[in-house]
Amino acid sequence: MATETGARLGLEYRDTNGFGAAQGGRGYYLPVDLAVRSDGRIYVLSRGDAIQGGNGIKITDIDHNWFEEISSRGIAPGQFISATAIAFDASDRLFMADEALHRITIFDADHNYESHWGTEGSGEGEFDGPSGIAFDRDGNLLVVDDKNQRIQRYTPDGKYLNSFGSAGDGNGEFSFPWGVTVAPDGVIYIADWRNDRIQRFTHEGKFIDACGTTGHGQGQFNRPANVAVDDDGNIFVADWGNQRVQAFDKDWNFQTSIRGAGELSKWAAEYIDANADEKEARSTFDPYPELDVNDPHEVSARTEPYFWDPVSIALYDDTRILILETGRHRFQVYEKV
Amino acid sequence: MATATNIGTELDLIAHLLRRTGFGSTPGELEEAGELGYEGTLDQLFNPGDADPLPVDLIRRYHADHNDLRIPPSSGSFWMYRLVTTKTPFEEKIALFWHRVFATGQTKVIQGKVMISQIDMFRKYGLGSFRELLIQLSKDPAMILWLDNQDNHKDNINENYGREILELFAMGVGNYTEDDVKECARAFTGWTIANMPYMSTKMRNNTLRPYGYIAWQFEYDESDHDDGEKTFLGETGNFTGEDVIDIICKNPATPQFIARHLYHHFVADELPVPQWPFEGPKDPEAIQLMVDAYFANDYSIGAMLRAMFESDIFKSETKRFARIKSPAEVVVGTLRLAGDFDWPTDDVYKATAACNYMGQQLLGPTSVEGWMGGDDWISTGSMVQRINFASDTIGDPDKRGVKAIVSRIADRHPSGNVEPEALVEDCLGLVGRLRVEDGTLNGLLAFVREQGDVDPSTEDGAGKITSLLQLIVSTREYQLA
User: Fold this and answer.
1) DSSP string of B381-404?
2) Between chains, do B62 and A99 touch, taking CB under 8 Å as contact?
3) Record: contact A327-B68, CB cut-off 8 A
4) DSSP state, A98?
């Protein structure tokens, strides 16, 4: 597992999308998840802070066009307090998980609030902090029930079907799982966050295998947050605590690791151009200063191009991957080569 | 002053030590320290184990704003978690001490990330050599931009940092000249941060765009350093910043000044700092004790404090409850007693805000002079905030710390009903061996008698004990450390 067989798959930087927008409107603020709709539009879940409030779900596309934002902070239907994840069903309805309200909210394809379901608890059909969500190959919703250390499966309208997993570090056990992804072949991938590994399960929830140990070497993880899988079975892991993304082939052979190479996005460049003092000051800006720290989080905090808290990954037309960063309020685009 | 506990026992002395080196003590902490004894407890304080606070990964996952720490509620509450959950509170007390002396504010430097890094630095170097601490302080990016040293150039000096390191940080008014200030500033030319023009512009504009804040990195720009001859505090040479710090540290005024700060923070309330040039220290013998330890131990702050804590001066009855708790001590001490924050919770923001309302915004001192402390902490408004916060926090019988107190009382009285005198004495002892005046004691006793019989093994009894605890943390005496 996780052995290096040569860098067969590479990831080349292509673009950066977004910029910070604490007050709403175009841009993101402490985003935690993103999802690509069937028409290519990209939805970014902008969680916001606990004081100024939730920032909404922001809608853009790969060419930096800005469309609109939906939802906001609050407890009313359609709002969120601590949103964690979004996912589209086959009809382009948008589902949103909220770990504070312990509920799943549904918007129709036109972004109208449709319904919500879920309540706090540890029984069937109850949540203690829903984090990742994804649809399985049958169109049912998998919900990572974080603090209950399990994965629950529901019909889209909220009818409980089944669950798998329990607390622990053995096969099929979890320690505060975060993201979930369903690969094109139906295999379920879980970011087993505090166990520093990714686990795979069959469509039915039977354990297949796991990859990863605690560390910062190849094939090791520090609190992996999310996973994406392409049509060839290549696996991309948001290695959150190590501030990087690692890629593996379908057999967990290490392919490559990237640290980030963000540049000024279209929106960011427009902002800099509109502010003469910042433009002048930035003319001498060295994005890679010499540092006296080694901690990856601290290094990212001081190095603008690097990923700072890469939290979510999404495939885009199976040729590109989008990597969302909570700390930098943007996502970077890489192409598979 | 009367007592409901056994004043004069070693356990009372240890409780006194834990109030000063920490935030008071839970029953378990005091019990463990009691087994070590006073000297053993001191040994452990100066040779601490793992702080084992609430893990940062959990905090960052469940509070997205604790990743970039951009806004004050985020950075303040990030520190609040550590203050409340650390197993080595002395480290935090030292960090709070230097935060007060080397007061730096997020109000100007804008980003909380570099403020937290400064606190980390205080934690790491705060008990070591004062020389090393001053070097770290002079290289600290938050301090550099707080006092404009990025604008201190060899051909155009900015005196701000050069002045404050002498006036506020190391020596105090009256121990240097205006020429010394200028020469000191010259020595620190070239001590700046990477990408200074862009970083200082972003600090001024205070905008999230384009990509949030970039944490600052110290950088020495040799080309901007004035390496000419300087005369500083009577010595002449081509001094660097490190040379100037050497001269400051060996000056007798420096340990005098630092010892008085340490006394103010750890022993008893002193006069506000602006009065120090005109009024001598309250306890010159205590100051001299620490000065001697400073010179005998390579400028060690830890040695100064250890000498103080081992002295009869510190142990004396007159030093017990001789300080007014800072807001941080009230908030953190009460939360630790209640056993809060063993998991990320939005209550951390309320606690941090409560500290603000009482007059101490963590990472946001009101000026470069820091907080005065002492009587300055108390006003009608702040007193109401103190009482309300403490009473509300301790008023939940389901909290782990409250349950532990009730459980201990139940264990002590297996027969059930507890006499009022015994109950009050138990509760005062279990909140850190609090000493109260006769009037307060009588009031507490009257309250218990009005409530009727108390059986701590019952829900009713737990509720009554919780109410008594609420009353105890609302007393005037609870405001004293």
Assistant:
1) HHHHHHHHHHHHHHT-TTSHHHHH
2) yes
3) yes
4) E
pLDDT in tens, B157-196: 999 999 999 999 999 999 999 999 999 999 999 999 999 9
CA pair distance B1, A334, nearest whole angstrom: 72
**β-bridge mates for residue B419, sequence order:** none
- Name residues 323-382 of chain B within 8 A of A (Cβ): 346, 349
Q: Residue A245, Cα to own-chain centre: how many angstroms?
A: 12
B60 neighbourhood in chain A, CB within 8 Å:
309
At B347-387, the pLDDT tens digits run 999 999 999 999 999 999 988 889 999 999 999 999 999 99
Residues sharing a CB contact under 8 Å with residue A305, sequence separation 6 or more, in sequence order = A260, A261, A262, A263, A287, A288
Distance (Å) from the alpha carbon of B198 to chain A's nearest alpha carbon: 4
Tell which residue, B68, B65, B212, has the closest CA to residue A49: B65
Size of interface A-B (CB pairs under 8 A): 121
In order, the DSSP letters of A11-22 are EEEEEEE--B-T
Check CB contact of A295 with chain B, cutoff 8 Å: no
By the CB < 8 Å criterion, does A206 face chain B?
A: no
* Chain A residues 52-71 with CB within 8 Å of chain B: 52
pLDDT value at position A50? 81
CB contact at 8 A, B18 and B30: yes
- For residues B382 and A121, what is the distance between their CA atoms, to the nearest angstrom? 39
Task: Summarize the confidence of residues A279-299 as an average pLDDT.
Answer: 97
Contact by Cβ (8 Å): A308, A296:
no
Look at residue B7 and tell me whether its pLDDT is greater than 60.
Answer: no
- The DSSP bridge partners found for residue B156 are B153
pLDDT for residue A107 is more than 90: yes
User: In the structure, what pLDDT confidence band is assigned to residue B26 with cuts at 50, 70 and 90?
Assistant: very high
Nearest to A278 among B61, B201, B349 (CB): B201
Give contacts of A175 with chain B, Cβ < 8 Å. none
User: What ipTM is given for this predicted complex?
Assistant: 0.96
CA dihedral B459, B464, B468, B469 (to 10 degrees): 10
Q: What CA–CA distance (Å, rounded) separates B474 from A246?
A: 55
Longest dimension (CA), chain A: 59
Kindly list the distances between the CA atom of residue A236 and the CA atoms of A198, A286, B209, in Å, as whole numbers in the listed order: 11, 29, 29
Q: What is the pLDDT of residues B117-136, one digit of tens each?
A: 999 999 999 999 999 999 99
Alpha-helical segments (H) within chain A: 266-274, 276-282, 296-302
**Under 8 Å between Cβ of A268 and A242:** no
Using a CB–CB cutoff of 8 Å, tell me whether B151 touches chain A. Answer: no
First to last CA, chain B: 15
CA angle in degrees (0–180, nearest 5) for B202-B207-B211: 85
Give the model's pLDDT for residue B1. 40
| Residues B202, A241: C-beta atoms closer than 8 Å | no
Q: What does each C-alpha distance from B475 to A39, B79, B339, B435, B436 come to in angstroms?
A: 65, 27, 20, 11, 8
Any residues with CB less than 8 A from the CB of A29 and at least 6 apart, and which?
A20, A21, A22, A46, A47, A48, A49, A55, A329, B208
pLDDT band at B230 (very low <50, low <70, confident <90, very high): very high
pTM: predicted TM-score of the whole model, two decimal places: 0.96
Tell me the backbone φ, ψ of residue A139, rounded to 5 degrees.
85, 10
So what's the pLDDT on residue B311?
A: 98
**Residue pLDDT, tens place only, A34-57:** 999 999 999 999 999 988 765 899
CA R_g for chain A = 19
Distance CA A138, CA A152 (A): 14
